[in-house]
Amino acid sequence: MDYTQQIEAAKQELLSLGFTEEKYNKLLELALEELVDNALNELQEKDIDALQALESKLIPDVTSLDEANKNLELILSVAYGEKAVETKQKMLLDYLNMTIEETKSVKDLLQRYQAGDPTAVAAIEAQKDNPELEELVKYLTEEGVTPSVDGVVSQSPQQTSL
Hints:
Blueprint: H1 4-16, H2 21-46, H3 48-57, H4 65-80, H5 84-114, H6 118-126, H7 131-142, E1 145-147, E2 153-155
Antiparallel strand pairs: 1-2
Helix pairs in contact: 1-5, 2-4, 2-5, 3-4, 4-5, 5-6
């Protein structure tokens, strides 16, 4: 199965949901980090010898994108063999699709909250003291998205994308 077109379609949908090209690239970095973590965890569970052999082949102290890509390809080829490229694309597509669904869900919740939907208000109110939410608000503030007085995140007028 060719995932290239599906990944491009997912990218376009994320852009239409308000992601900028820069945020999309950051999302790809996070997806690839997760992909590497999954591959290494699978190797650790299945074949500790292969994992140790892989460790000796990796480029230490990566200083360029090319070196990082070589390490990524090596990790995936050891973990998934012939299906490394296909597995990488499938996992990336799954990650992007999950992000699309979560983004839609959050946007819907925010719209319902702003419209006064009691269920949405209760859901947001219940999370106000959540440390993860506080961390997210801090991150969004650093990114130029400002939280409103009641703790709900809103974008400043000039900030129109994620």
